[in-house]
Amino acid sequence: MVKGTAKRYIPRGFRHKYIPCWNEESNRLYTEYQRNGQAETADKLLGSLAKGRKDRWTETVERIDFKHSSREAWNVLRRLDPSQNRGDGEPEIKPNAFANRLIETSIAKIDKDTSRKLTMASNNIAPPKIRREQALIREWTKIKNNKNLPVHADVRINADRLRLKSRKPPWKTAEMLLLENTGENTKWFEDWMAENPDVQNIVTNPTSKQPGFDLPRKIWVTLNRIRTGHGRCNHMMYKWKLHTT
């Protein structure tokens, strides 16, 4: 902020170059080095600057009371740190790279699409595409059968005169689906058998509810505790070191 303000408001040619711990001795050695160009003079100049910075560091640290003002101490340490990269920057390892590395080194193969389809079949939920088609059929049937709706005249009479035309209007898609006359369960079963996302044959028919689907939640909680070996009991509290006995 100080540098930006100086560049905006101090005219060029009037900006003084500041070197920490530069004193009269440093100025004398620098003038002597410009005159003779000897390496010993340059070493003396660098040693003088290093000694001045060390003395400044020691004086600043000894003056700080670390017992009562830790914030001031850390602020001084940050200001005197020569590293320009210190601060809250972006981490070198991105979260996506870390996740990809975990997937690469893991034993099990991750297939989100297959896992999602299998989960929906286990919960007896049709795929999104089939549910959207069924919702379109229901909406189109309601519009077609109710002549009092304003949209009925728009899609029937003024379909060709609409200002914004679509290459695939929804009413044509709905009419095509009605002509196919394929039920939701039938289409779902055909797609399931064609793709076969369940390699282990856990779900043979996704349209039917799986065994235990109607069990109450209390029983499923108990089964999951038995399956995972974790639950709210004294043994697990002792295992997690939350209880001593």
Protein model, in words:
InterPro entries: RdDP_mobile_element (IPR052560). The chain is mainly α. The protein is built from twelve helices and no strands. The longest helix is centred in the first third of the chain and has 25 residues, at 39-63. It starts with a helix and ends in a 6-residue tail after the last helix.
Task: Compose a concise summary of this entry.
InterPro entries: RdDP_mobile_element. The protein has twelve helices and no strands.
Fraction of helical residues: 55-70%
The dominant shape is: elongated
Kindly name the structural category.
mainly alpha
Separation of the first and last Cα atoms: 59 Å
Q: The biggest beta sheet, please?
A: none
Tell me the number of strands.
0
The helix/strand series, from N terminus to C terminus, equals HHHHHHHHHHHH
Mean pLDDT: 76
Share of β-strand residues? under 5%
State Rg.
Answer: 38 Å
Low-pLDDT runs: none
